[in-house]
């Protein structure tokens, strides 16, 4: 069996096109363009690159973006004052505080200040709490896990009743992914570094979402034949055949797994592009909520 490759790049482009069209319609109706504010504390090059690409995506879709940068030694009070100012600014629809912040900053405290209507990353305890509770609806769902579920839906994978394994238990990807799968009636198992017999657990999975940051750790013979495999991992692997000497790979051994799985996302070009596409969608949604 050779898996169907889920083309995250094409699916993300479709989402972006839809958002761009909705933004243009808003403009035609005389409504203000949605505006995303980003907050970057410190000078991590990867975080700076992520923030820049989010701003660029906003501009490409006709949305506004405002970037705020604080030095790495900024105090908790400075970060929180900035978030409060953005909450109060009616021109700002969405607030994204880039993580991780420097170790001396209490992230939970800063994130909990973001107004629920502007929490486009979906990490505020209010949105996560609503996601975790039956019968409640979060205003925003975290972007990467929302992208994983969107990819499954677009590929036509049946989630209802499926055995799903989420590999990893991070706040930003795995826990919300597990909650989203549960909301769609999957039977969900969350595996982590203390799980006994990881291969045996994963072999039960009709759906696997892997986000552990370990180069190709999930082998082909861990995959249940016909399973849907969503690989969130982004890892650099040495590759002397490349000019750069390295290439990006996921947490799943793609070449092995694609011979067993029914569907699989590549790295790069799978989940990665979905994260920004879902952020754009959430920013549009924030503007729509605030129109009311
Ligand atoms: P994280 O916070 O670093 O957490 C890693 C998780 O993996 C932890 O729950 C850890 O278990 C588990 N883990 C680590 N080693 C393991 C092992 N040997 N066996 C089983 N479980 C193990 O993870 P993250 O921030 O979610 O990132 C995970 C990966 O996703 C990274 O490669 C990251 O670059 C990627 N990512 C991609 C996107 C995207 O847009 N595509 C977005 C976010 C993250 P314990 O809790 O027991 O320690």
Which key features would you list for this structure?
292 residues; alpha/beta; 11 strands; 3-stranded parallel beta sheet; single chain
Strand arrangement across the biggest beta sheet: 1-11-8-7-5-6
N- to C-terminal distance:
50 Å
What structural class should be given to the helix and strand makeup?
Answer: alpha/beta
Low-confidence spans: pLDDT under 50, at least 5 residues? none
Report the principal-axis shape.
globular
Query: Number of helical segments?
Result: 10
Level of helix content? 40-55%
What bound compounds does this protein have? NADP nicotinamide-adenine-dinucleotide phosphate
Give the ordered list of helices and strands. EHEHEHEHHHEHEHEEEEHEH
> How many β-strand stretches?
11
Mean pLDDT score? 97
Strand content: 15-25%
- Biggest sheet record: 6 strands, parallel
**Cα gyration radius (Å):** 19 Å
Verbal overview:
The protein has helices at 8-28, 45-60, 76-88, 107-113, 125-132, 143-155, 174-183, 198-202, 254-257, 272-291, and strands spanning 4-5, 35-41, 64-70, 94-97, 163-167, 187-191, 207-210, 228-231, 235-238, 246-249, 263-264. It is an alpha/beta fold and 292 residues long. The strands form three sheets. The protein has a six-stranded parallel sheet. The N and C termini lie far apart (50 Å). The site of NADP nicotinamide-adenine-dinucleotide phosphate has 22 residues, from helix 10. Residues 144, 168-170, 172-174, 192-194, 198, 211-214, 232-235, 271-272, 275 line the site of NADP nicotinamide-adenine-dinucleotide phosphate.
């Amino acid at each position: 069996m050779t898996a169907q490759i889920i083309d995250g790049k094409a699916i993300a482009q479709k989402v972006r096109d839809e958002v761009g069209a909705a933004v243009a319609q808003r403009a035609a109706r005389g409504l203000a363009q949605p505006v995303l504010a980003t907050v970057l504390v410190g000078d991590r090059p990867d975080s700076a690159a992520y923030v820049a690409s989010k701003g660029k995506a906003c501009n490409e879709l006709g949305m506004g973006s405002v970037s705020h940068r604080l030095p790495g030694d900024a105090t908790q009070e400075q970060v929180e004052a900035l978030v409060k100012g953005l909450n109060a600014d009616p021109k700002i629809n969405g607030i994204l505080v880039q993580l991780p912040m420097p170790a001396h900053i209490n992230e939970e405290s800063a994130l909990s200040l973001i107004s629920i209507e502007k929490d486009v990353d979906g990490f505020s305890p209010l949105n996560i709490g609503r996601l975790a509770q039956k019968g409640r609806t979060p205003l925003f769902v975290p972007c990467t896990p929302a992208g994983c579920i969107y990819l499954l839906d677009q590929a036509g994978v049946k989630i209802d009743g499926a055995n799903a394994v989420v590999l990893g238990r991070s706040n930003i990807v795995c826990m919300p992914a597990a909650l989203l799968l549960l909301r769609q009636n999957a039977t969900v198992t969350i595996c982590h570094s203390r799980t006994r017999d990881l291969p045996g657990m994963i072999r039960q999975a009709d759906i696997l979402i892997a986000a552990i940051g370990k180069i190709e750790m999930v082998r082909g013979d861990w995959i249940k034949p016909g399973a849907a495999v969503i690989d969130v991992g982004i890892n650099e692997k040495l590759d002397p055949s490349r000019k750069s000497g390295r290439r990006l790979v996921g947490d799943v051994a793609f070449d092995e797994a694609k011979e067993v799985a029914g569907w699989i996302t590549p790295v790069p070009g799978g989940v990665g592009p979905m994260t920004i596409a879902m952020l754009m969608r959430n920013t549009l949604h924030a503007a729509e909520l605030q129109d009311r």
